[in-house]
Amino acid sequence: MAKYIIKRILFGVLTAFVVATLTFFIMNLVPGGPFLSEKAVTPQAQAAMEAKYGLDKPLFVQYLTYMGDILQGDMGMSLKKRGFTVNDIIRNKFPVSARLGGMAVLLSVLIGVPLGSIAAYNRGKVIDNIIIVFSTAGIAIPTFLSSTLMMYFLSVKLKLLPSLGLTTPASYIMPVLALSLYPASYISRLMRSSMLDVIGQDYMRTARAKGVSTFKSIFKHALRNAILPVVTYLGPLLAYLMTGSFIVEKIFTIPGLGHEFVSAIPSRDYPLIMGTTIFLACFIILMNVVVDIAYAFIDPRIKLK
Amino acid sequence: MDKKKNPLSLQLNVDDFVPATADEKESLVIMRESVGFWKDGLRRFKRNKIAMTAFTVVMIIVVLAFIVPAFYPYAYEEQVKGSERLGIMEYSAKEIQRMEAGESIFPHILGTDQNGRDYTIRVLVGARVSMTVGIVASLLILLIGSVYGAVAGYFGGKVDMVMMRIVDVLYTIPDVLIIILLAQVLKFPLQNLSNVPGFGWITALGPNMVSMFLVFALLYWVGMARIVRGQIMVLKQNEYVTAAKALGASNGRIIKRHLITNCIGTLIVTTTLQIPSSIFTESFLSFLGLGVQAPMPSLGSLASDALNGLQTYPEKLFAPAFMIFVIILSFNLLGDGLRDAFDPKMKK
Amino acid sequence: MSDYLVDIKHEKLSFFTPVGEVKALNDVSIQMKEGEVLGIVGESGSGKSVTAYSLMGLTADNGKIVDGEVNFNGHRVDLMTEKEIRKIRGKEISIIFQDPMTSLNPVYTIGNQIEEAVRVHGDKTKEEARQRPRELLTLVGINEPDKRLKQYPHELSGGMRQRVMIAIALACEPKLLIADEPTTALDVTIQAQILELMNDLRRKLKMGIILITHDLGVVASMCDHIAVMYAGEIVEYGTTDDIFYEPKHEYTKGLLKSIPKFQEKEYSRLVPIEGTPVDLLNPPKGCGFAPRCDSCMKICLERKPEKMIINADGTFEDMPDETEYNGKHYSRCWLQKKEQFELQDNAKGES
User: Fold this and answer.
1) Cβ of B32 and C279 within 8 Å?
2) Which of A88, B280, B302, C130 is 20 to 30 A from B288 in CA distance terms?
3) Cα separation, A205 vs C60, whole angstroms
4) CA distances from C247 to C217, C221, C226, C227, C237 (A)
């Protein structure tokens, strides 16, 4: 077990390293390098800037400096928000996104798992078909559509919910719903198919042969096996919610990290873009490691590998 | 000997007890019709009403997006002066005048945008752009992923170990973040490249579109590679591969003739299901303004533009939104149907 | 009320599939006394598992008993609701399956799964329920039971898992144990051990066993009676000696020819049964085995043969339906009818 956990963590560190490296070299594809603002500057000023940021040095040296800085937790200064370090911005904005994302994860699992199980258990019946229709439609609606349509109908037309910001508890409803629609549908499809798979397994027949009631055999024997693919999906789900939050935060003007990231792109605030990317990537990787470890606790077979 | 009179014989005839011929035996064996893989799959697919409907819808959208624009009276970048911001089926004052003069004017079914461009044609072309990105990206993914997966799975051992560790790392990278970065910066080198002779086609397609193909292809092939590798690993154990090896077939030939043909079902299904997910990502990027370049529309950018006038012109959002929904839904259903028909091993 | 533990009368069972009605059992009747070991032999799809599963209501959802009676230990199983059947499952009747690798839930410990079987019928005190899994493991010959109880299925070998399955089946000391190909998935050496264990337990616990297999070698060592099934019918039934030394049905003869015998000359060849089993979606109107039978006659293709009792002196008689025929050797083949006529003719000629 300890060996497995250490292996997962080392793998996470390796992935984080690859992401940071990729980010650095991708940003260097931009003509003039990443630390250049679009304003016209005199050659002297540019040289001074380059010297200041070490851009006159060879690319590899720049890379080493950059990685060294990151390891020390220094992501540099924002170019647009004068006086703020990237770290400050992340520290202020990330909790907002995390809260939104956390609620969406919870809601998706709480909706998706029961719906998928109910559908599988009632395979071929009306309720199964209803759930299939909704979950299939749910994965065909990108977040930006569910957000905008919800905003149009619920706040513009019916004026039921506040459309912008996160000031009242009610203002959480739409962003969280918009974020959860896709993952909840996806989880219910995933859960349905894995539940169907598990119901057909020999050990379910064993449970029946023992005289275990249907309810108990579903709860004790099927659920824990069937939920494994859903646990695996939680990693990618997190990544999805983080990126989904770019859109949701933009549409509902929520002051989160996603909003910050999206507005940094057109304004070419490169340190902020890089810093946010690396931070989010590391966060997602960390969560993946956590999910992997949780998986090992649910499935005893994993220890062998 | 008169068995007919025997009370126990129950109308049994002595002739009944002569041995039956092989033909007689044969004629009684009612076997279920045995059908080939493709025929069987096609039959199952045709019986699946949902999948057939989805297939029809995909075909209709293909016609609307790829053929209709060529005959449409307006072009997607054509700005009709004086016809800005028209509603559904509205005509501008100028157009009404011309119509009164006896000219026939094609109606703006969905109105026009703020630049006086006909919105119907923009939605259709937007669908074309989205589908092109989705399909081309999926084909690139198929190509890269299946070759990589096949090589790793076929050679196994150390080669496989190294190749799959690379895949593992790429798999855990949060792809959308990297895609956003790449979409943002790739256009610069691509613009430079388009000036190089022989790469002029990049300008024709637009550097953004090409960069979108590239980033999708660069990041999404890992899933495909894993699936193909898994299939190959299983198939490799089969006797016919050993037999082919024993007959001296080359590695390339075995991969091509035996292994790829045997996982073709999985490949088709995975690729079909990759299309909607690529369209999904494309519309997301376009919505963020990282997609194709104006004036070329995509469904995502149309939806994004419509946000500003949402109160007055909600149909400008509904049209592309509905289009995206229908495209993704019907491709998903089509993929599900193909999987049920051609790949019974893969469950939903 | 019959004095049999198992009394199946004219059972017809069909699976209703999207392609059509698959007639899995066609008029199956079988009796079995308490403590008896019955072997059901036949190839896959012959209905041997379905027959046994229908005794405990374990057939798949689309399988329905269309006609006949299924009596077990005084219960009309075919008339019971799922809830009623659940009360006897695991308590009066238990089953072990072919593949011990997949029959145990991978995410729970052995102890947990045995204890569940003990507790589910709730007539044990807490203390007993806690001690019972340990006892059971000792009973089925697993050493270090305390350690095993805490282990997960994947940590045990195939033979060990099958022992655990047997322990689960024996948790409530059932009257009947159904063993569905219990050794097929195991190594040959382990097979013998498991069979020996079952024989041993049967004597200790005085329970009846239905042993389902396609391996005649397995039944020979254990069974009192053997029923040979083909295409959803019992084609021959008798004591183990009857079946092995006096096989009457052509299919039984074929089966016996297809197993290796050590005492025979080394160059005698194994004879496979040619052809494939019938398609139960379109069952033939005649004898199911006719198309593969070397001695097939015209009548075999036209009409189903009736059961014929084979007397010890080698004579035949028609089997009256309602009489008790447990223990009597019978076969369902037109050849016996033909022989009967010939015997009668000879008798006439002599007189």
Assistant:
1) yes
2) A88
3) 10
4) 15, 17, 11, 12, 9
C-beta atoms of B30 and C296 within 8 A? no
Cα separation, C29 vs C233, whole angstroms? 9
Q: Which of B1, B16, B25 sits opposite C291 (nearest CB)?
A: B25
Q: How far apart are CA A174 and CA A163, in angstroms?
A: 8
Q: Nearest to residue C281, comparing CAs of C14, C11, C12?
A: C14
Query: Which amino acid is present at B134?
Result: G
Length of chain B: 348
> In DSSP terms, which residues pair with C209 in a beta bridge?
C37, C177
Distance CA A279, CA A275 (A): 6
| Minimum Cα–Cα distance from C281: chain B residue | B32
Q: Which of C309, C337, C346 has the most B C-beta neighbours within 10 Å, making it the best mutation to test the interface with B?
A: C337
Grouping H, G, I as helix, E, B as strand and the rest as coil, residue C279 is coil
For residue C351, CA distances in Å to B2, B9, C127, C316 come to: 16, 20, 76, 19
Distance between CA atoms of residues C271 and C274, nearest Å: 9
Element (H or E) spanning A33, and its range? none
Calculate mean pLDDT across residues B164-176. Answer: 78
Probe site for chain A from C96, C107, C164 (most A CB atoms < 10 A): C107
Q: Which of A196, A210, A295, A304 to mutate to test the interface with C (most CBs of C within 10 A)?
A: A210
Tokens of C151: 């282990």
Contact assessment for residue B331 and residue B135, using Cβ atoms and an 8 Å cutoff: no
With contacts defined as CB-CB under 8 Å, which chain C residues touch A203?
102-106
Dist. CA B218–CA B170, nearest whole Å: 10
Separation in Å, CA A204 to CA A197, A207, C112: 10, 5, 15
Check CB contact under 8 Å for A209 and C89.
yes
Q: Where is average pLDDT lowest: A196-200, B99-103, B172-176, B257-261?
A: B257-261
Distance CA B292, CA B130 (A): 9
Dist CA B6 CA B13 (whole Å): 10
- For the whole model, what pTM was predicted? 0.82
**SS3 (DSSP) at C125:** coil
| ipTM confidence score | 0.81
pLDDT of residue B28: 59
Question: Looking up tokens 């304003």, which residue turns up?
Answer: A39
- Edge-to-edge strand list for the sheet holding C6-17: C20-32, C6-17, C63-72, C75-76
Confidence band for A178, pLDDT divided at 50, 70 and 90: very high
Rounded Cα distance between A97 and A256, Å, is 5
Antiparallel, parallel or unpaired: β C93-96 and C37-41 = unpaired
Q: Does B220 touch chain A (CB under 8 A)?
A: no
Nearest Cα of chain B lies from the Cα of A21 at a distance, in angstroms, of 11
Alpha carbon distance B329, B348 (integer Å) = 15
Task: Please check whether residue B130 is in contact with residue B283, taking contact to mean a CB–CB distance below 8 angstroms.
Answer: yes
DSSP state of C154: G
By CB atoms closer than 10 A (0-12, 13-18, 19+), residue B44 is: middle
Distance of CA C295 to the CA centre of its chain: 27
Q: How far apart are CA B184 and CA A34, in angstroms?
A: 12
Check C102 against A203: CB less than 8 A apart: yes
Segment C107-120 mean pLDDT:
90
